[in-house]
């Protein structure tokens, strides 16, 4: 038997609970992992609360992230005892995920645990940190560097936002944090933000072109915020579009693109090829230090997942939630 969060949907409605399952119930896969840590992401919150149709079939174990040790393997690439890491690939949406003590997976979805990091540190980073790193790499690929100008990060207190600030600051950028929680100034400054602005400045409809304020952005919120971020990006700048915490809409115009030559770089972490994942995790392992990870993360047990999701969906969680599944 093993413990897991299970989401069910039937005549009795949509519900999530901590449950005991038998190993024989695990889905097909060529590798079985003893999960050590998972994490809570916005998408896990949507799945567990049922707020958005993230889960494709039921019953489902949520958890888009996991790190642990291989205990059974039919894969030539992974052997019993190997430490592994997984982010995305529809795990926790289409395939049973990481919020459980055991997971059976397709070995193609795994990457070896980065050498400098523990399973717990990897889950402190999780999909949020890995997505933030992909966003920063996208800015770099479009020629952005610290000498070119400031970078704005929206959704600053969230998982992706917190990591984007920490990574960018460590790389020497002047970071502007946009947040609805300006009372978190100390935290955001400790992460490395040089300026903090109220997200209300950006969240209402704006003009097609506005004063040029930053050369790049990591946007976690979409909607009018993303439109205004683009409209305020300096000539030749790049905006990495990561999330939709405000809205899935993009009510913008072509003006910033055809008059200022800015680039909107889409960031997807879920289906990202293996080589990009290895590259991003290697960068994360060298850029982030333990003190920043401690500052950004809090650890909970499986029994606390459901109540913590309620807080997550109300925007009350700062940084990252690690889940110790054992
Ligand atoms: P979190 O819930 O941790 O953070 C989201 C943050 O967005 C909040 O902390 C808040 O920051 C801000 N926010 C919330 N509601 C609003 C609103 N109505 N208007 C403006 N800002 C708002 O989520 P994550 O950091 O894990 O994820 C952020 C986004 O990125 C999500 O939409 C998620 O789905 C997406 N994502 C995308 C990935 C990809 O592959 N592209 C991978 C991972 C996440 P503050 O309090 O500072 O204002």
UniProtKB/TrEMBL annotation:
One GO MF annotation is: acryloyl-CoA reductase (NADPH) activity
Concerning Pfam families, the annotation shows: ADH_N, ADH_zinc_N
Q: List each copy of the Enoyl reductase (ER) domain by range.
A: 15-323
Tell me the SMART domains matching this sequence: PKS_ER
Q: Which InterPro entries match?
A: Acrylyl-CoA_reductase_AcuI, ADH-like_C, ADH-like_N, ER, GroES-like_sf, NAD(P)-bd_dom_sf, Zn-ADH-like_protein
SUPFAM superfamilies annotated for this entry?
GroES-like, NAD(P)-binding Rossmann-fold domains
Q: What is this protein called?
A: Putative quinone oxidoreductase, YhdH/YhfP family
Give the species this sequence originates from.
Frischella perrara
